[in-house]
Amino acid sequence: MTEPAMLHGECLCRTIGYAVPDAFTYAWNCHCGGCRRATGSAFKPFAGIAADQIRLVRGGDSIMHYGNGPNHDVHCGQCGSLLWSLVRDGQFVHVTLGTLIDTPAIRPQAHICVAFKAPWHVICDGLPQFEGLPP
Ligand SMILES: [Zn+2]
Ligand SMILES: [Zn+2]
Fold it and tell me: How far, in Å, from the CA of 112 to the mean position of ligand 2?
């Protein structure tokens, strides 16, 4: 077994850098209102991996947590970029694919929360679409 390659990511102002193994277990595009507002985009492409797999490379002093408890979002406190969300009772992180510098092996596998999709956005690919979360 060879170790998976490490992927690096960073926020807009590059204050915060992180590393995560190229071993995501799923990747989805979320169309919910929260993800749209957090990113300012039509949807949020993200990939999931066990929370203990991600590590900060630099900028830890500038981390801003949005939300409390085991589920919350991790932003850069300087530029505001959403880097990842702690989810599923803190067991997983959903890493925003847009903050990765390196290219992950995984590709988005489905659109989720399509029931909340922005009416002005048209999904143009053939990926499966789920009203909420995949079954
Ligand atoms: Zn930043
Ligand atoms: Zn969402």
Answer: 8
Distance 12 CA to ligand 1 centre (A): 5
Ion ligand 2 neighbours, Cβ < 5 Å: 30, 32, 35
Note the pLDDT tens digit of each residue in 39-70.
999 999 999 999 999 999 999 999 999 998 88
Give the tens place of pLDDT for each residue, 68-112. 888 899 999 999 999 999 999 999 999 999 999 999 999 999 999
Q: Is 92 helix (H, G, I), strand (E, B) or coil?
A: strand
Taking the centre of ligand 1 as the mean of its atom positions, its distance from the CA of residue 24, in whole angstroms, is 23
Looking up residue 38, the CATH number of its domain turns out to be 2.170.150.70
Q: What is the pTM of this model?
A: 0.95
The bound ligand whose nearest atom lies closest to the alpha carbon of 112 is 2
Residue 134 belongs to some domain of the structure: no
Tell me which residue range forms the domain holding 37: 6-116
